[in-house]
Amino acid sequence: MIYPKINKKNIKISVIAPSSNCGDSVYSKIRNDSAISKFNKLGHTIDFTKNAYGTAYKFASANELERAVEFMEAYKSNSDLILALRGGELQMEILPYIDFKDMLNYKPKWYQGFSDNTVLTYTLTTICDIATIYGTNFGDFGMKPWHKYIKQNYNFWFGKNEILKSTSKHEPAFLEKKEGHECDGYKCKIKTKYQIITGEKEVKIKGRLIGGCLDILRELCGSKYDNTLNFLEKYKDDGFLWYLESCDLKDWDTIRSLWKLKDNGWFKYVKGFLIGRPALENEFKDINAIDCYLHILKDFNVPIIYNMDFGHVKPNFYIVNGAIGELNVKNGKGEIKYFLQ
Q1: pLDDT value for 175
Q2: I need a surface site. Which of 227, 259, 262, 324 has the fewest CB within 10 A?
Q3: How does DSSP classify residue 55?
């Protein structure tokens, strides 16, 4: 596994929009400006893609070729880190225009993004063997003050690899922020409880982390960009911790998506499932989100931990996609440590 490194204090960050942009949103402009100001005070330079704002192009920041070129140019540039501006719906359209082989000719750099950015975080890791960061998009760095997970995420870029401990509370739902509250922190009101839904009283597991947003993973599964089975064989001795969360999936969509991944052999060598908080948790008659995961995954006879601190209900800790993860869960609390090996 290739782990990018940052060996200087003051860095250049490329902020790109490979999925959606911020349009003419005043809220996003203020929040992003706050993030820019924070990074500037820390000694860093921010380079925004030209498609960050402006009229959307068919649910995206630009046409697929232009978005792919912006990503490739950022990767080949003298920037030290690439941050996704935001998520969206159609990032997968850029895949035919990404030259994964050519990327290996350049110094590796961290790519970080969330939600629809699973397209790049997953393929870069499984195809190129380059670790990525499944973590918050650029806008959350504009909050005042930074949440502890934002601070730890930032510190990780510069080599400080801390143990990430579960929060005491999380937001009640996938909240849309409002004008006048652009730089507010998370609105955490609900007590956080990690649930071991397979019944164990305590879980201690270790394996290589892989996963992302289930909405996207199900579309990548079986496509020409699906190198998952080769990736699994390469690291089978480590076993795998699959981390999964969802945005638009209703209960039956979750079952169908998990079934597809299972049927395609993605969960071979699994040692545990880490499930983040979904944006939608609509119960349909006698089934809920927990039932959906158990319905498909229980036969693997490995721990399944639900309601972890990642997903579309914040706050969410960053996940080093491709790294070894060591997870300990007991009495509703948990902690995770990453090993870059």
Answers
A1: 66
A2: 259
A3: -
